[in-house]
């Protein structure tokens, strides 16, 4: 048995489709579909821009100024978090930097590097592709790719943050502390939850299974 999701573009017959909403980042459609059994159903779904998210990590500095070198221990790393108001759930949420792939032709890891700089004024020298997921498969086709970013340092950007982004704060937090908050259900951003759990596993495995995509930044 192969554990892999499969594309199924022809799994149902779309009998009728109506666009009921057009927006800046997503459109909403009303479909009437027919299954091979003959059963019919009505589904509303969202055609949404894809996105990227970034788990930016730096080693904990021990007393005396010595950086810990044990890359397999999550407690020896800090993760860069942002805190942002989200209107739909009406919550101020801890999240990881993220953004839409809304520039035509831009490589996903380049989008991740741009979003990291725009949201946090940081850049990273090493990038690894981590987990990916469909954000809400019951109603949306948005794919989100998570990247791990290392060798992070401050940088200057000309991007002007507005609205929710103008209120954003950021903080480096011990990865083990974030893991505990995730498992206690105190942190509920799905991107943060998936990214933090994946990062912890990746570190414990010595990044085995994560693809180094640093060379794709100029692609």
Structural overview:
Helix content is 19%, strand content 40%. The model has no long low-confidence stretch (mean pLDDT 92). The chain starts with 12 loop residues before the first strand and ends in a 7-residue tail after the last strand. It contains 4 helices and 11 strands, in the order βββββββαββαβααβ. The chain has 219 residues and is of the alpha+beta class. The chain has helices at 108-120, 164-167, 175-183, 190-204, and strands spanning 13-22, 26-34, 40-48, 51-59, 77-86, 91-95, 98-100, 122-134, 143-154, 169-174, 211-212. Strands 4, 5, 6, 7, 8, 9, 10 and 11 form an 8-stranded mixed β-sheet that branches. It has a 3-stranded antiparallel β-sheet with strand order 1-2-3, with no helix packed on it. Helix 3 packs across helix 4.
Detail the topology: elements first, then pairings.
Blueprint: E1 13-22, E2 26-34, E3 40-48, E4 51-59, E5 77-86, E6 91-95, E7 98-100, H1 108-120, E8 122-134, E9 143-154, H2 164-167, E10 169-174, H3 175-183, H4 190-204, E11 211-212
Parallel strand pairs: 4-9
Antiparallel strand pairs: 1-2, 2-3, 4-5, 4-7, 5-6, 5-10, 8-9, 8-11
Helix pairs in contact: 3-4
Summarize the structure.
This protein has 219 residues and is an alpha+beta fold.
């Amino acid at each position: 048995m192969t554990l892999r999701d499969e594309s199924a573009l022809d799994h149902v017959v779309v009998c009728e489709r109506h666009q009921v909403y057009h927006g800046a980042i997503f459109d909403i459609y009303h479909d009437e579909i027919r299954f091979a059994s003959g059963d019919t159903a009505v589904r509303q779904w969202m055609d949404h821009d894809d996105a990227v998210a970034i788990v930016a990590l730096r080693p904990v500095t021990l007393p005396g100024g010595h950086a810990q070198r044990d890359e397999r221990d999550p407690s020896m790393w800090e993760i860069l978090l942002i805190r942002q108001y989200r209107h739909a759930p009406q919550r101020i949420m801890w999240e990881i930097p993220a953004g839409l792939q809304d520039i035509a032709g831009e490589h996903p890891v380049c989008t991740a590097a741009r979003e990291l700089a725009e949201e946090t004024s940081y850049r990273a020298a090493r990038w690894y592709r981590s987990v990916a997921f469909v954000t809400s498969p019951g109603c949306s086709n948005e794919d989100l790719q998570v990247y791990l970013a290392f060798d992070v340092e401050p940088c200057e950007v000309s991007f002007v943050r507005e609205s929710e982004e103008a209120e954003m704060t950021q903080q480096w937090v011990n990865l083990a502390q974030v893991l505990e908050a995730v498992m206690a259900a105190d942190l509920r951003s799905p991107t943060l939850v998936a990214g933090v759990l994946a990062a912890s596993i990746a570190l414990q495995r010595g990044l085995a299974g994560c693809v180094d995509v640093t060379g794709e930044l100029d692609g």
